[in-house]
Amino acid sequence: MQFLQRKCIPPLVFCSIFALFLLFFSTFSHFNGVPFLFFHHISAIGDSFDFVENQLKLTPVSTPPSPPRFAYLISGSAGNGDMLKRVLLAIYHPLNQYVVHLDRKASPEERLALEEFVKGYKVFNEVGNVRMIVKANLITYKGPTMVANTLHAAAILLREGGDWDWFINLSASDYPLVTQDDLLHTFSNLPRDLNFIDHTSKIGWKAGQRAKPVIIDPGLSSLKKAEVAWVKERRSVPTAFKLFTGSAWMALSRPFIEYCIWGWDNLPRKVLMYYTNFVSSPEGYFHTVICNAEPFRNTTVNHDLHFISWDNPPKQHPRRLRLVHMKLMLDSNAPFARKFYPNGRLLDKIDAELLSRGREMFTPGGWCAGSGENGTDPCSVVGTPTVLKAGPGAKRLQLLIDFLLSSGTFRERQCK
Ligand SMILES: *[C@@H]1O[C@H](CO)[C@@H](O)[C@H](O)[C@H]1NC(C)=O
Ligand SMILES: *[C@@H]1O[C@H](CO)[C@@H](O)[C@H](O)[C@H]1NC(C)=O
Ligand SMILES: *[C@@H]1O[C@H](CO)[C@@H](O)[C@H](O)[C@H]1NC(C)=O
């Protein structure tokens, strides 16, 4: 009663009504044997929904394991500028870091357009986590200049990208199948030293067609993009290390990237020199390094996190995905897929059904704090980046991760 008196001196009438109310309540609750039940009810109504909402925001699903950060390289060539922008918007999240690169085959106009897009986007400027390699590299498809470009971007991200946990290499014909909130949420619970890299030492036909031929990458000596040049001599398979091969798509841990870039150990350098004359080095360089490096072989997860549809038998390029692939793609539970028709119907379907992404907008997530009024992008206002709203994509991805890390899969498939 002390409490009531102090609190309600002026409106005496209200006070007495409230006291009566309390009296009634206590009888009622005693009768029910559930004290305070009624009180809870009152507070829920009285404090409006704002209160409930704030409570929800204060306890995001992502704590206590704090969300990780991804560092992305998205690269493209002539004519890929628009798709590159679309991929960037679809996988953008303020916690992540991004490097975009258009190789030297793209026209100066196209590169300038991308540069202006990156510089002019309000959110990118505010957060400051998107950068472009302005002095473009010349890249030979299948040649070592491709690996050199990936290492270059990784080095930039180490120097300028602050904290991040995984490096992911994408092209303009890749696309996400889950939101970044889904990805960050699922990876929150994973050891940060895992490396997702599809690999095998059964190089089979590749021994004769990839390991033994010697090539020269024209990207190192000419200014024009050209096919790799084949040398008449052949070499034998190396004995200093064991060759591994696999998919050119991967998510590599920061410790492993540091190992490759810093080069305190000689293995990454030695393997790079070997791969300088190797056909399709992106399908072997990191695989060979990681499986020959004792501290890292046990961190490999044998998967590239992509859905890719190959012809049977596989040709040089994977099939372009169409609407009929939607179900297979979803069933794979992979967070990314390739390769797509630029701005095709399948991409629109993924935007609408999997990412809830509006045209030319960001993929919405817990960080988006705008009202979305009048058709504006809700993500044009940056809220709290660590608030993650995981959706159905996180459930799918979790299935894949659970499978990959299950006993009988994880250890059994490492560097075999
Ligand atoms: C990195 O991304 C490009 C796509 O732009 C791809 O072709 C390349 O093989 C990837 N992997 C490596 C290891 O460079
Ligand atoms: C890696 O795993 C193997 C087999 O489980 C074990 O013998 C080896 O000591 C591990 N290496 C490291 C560096 O942890
Ligand atoms: C939306 O449009 C209405 C009427 O045109 C305007 O009053 C309002 O300020 C707009 N809101 C935003 C967020 O632009």
TrEMBL record:
User: Record keywords: Glycosyltransferase included?
Assistant: yes
Lineage, top-rank taxon, reads Eukaryota
Write one Gene Ontology MF term: glucuronosyltransferase activity
Identify the GO cellular component terms for this protein: membrane
Q: Indicate how the chain sits in the lipid bilayer.
A: Single-pass type II membrane protein
Q: What compartments host this protein?
A: Membrane
Q: Where are the transmembrane segments?
A: 12-31
**Alphabetized InterPro entries for the sequence:** GLCAT14A/B/C, Glyco_trans_14
Principal localization reads membrane
Q: Which UniProt keywords apply?
A: Glycoprotein, Glycosyltransferase, Membrane, Transferase, Transmembrane, Transmembrane helix
Q: Name the PANTHER family on file.
A: BETA-GLUCURONOSYLTRANSFERASE GLCAT14A, GLYCOSYLTRANSFERASE
> This protein is called what?
Tetratricopeptide repeat (TPR)-like superfamily protein
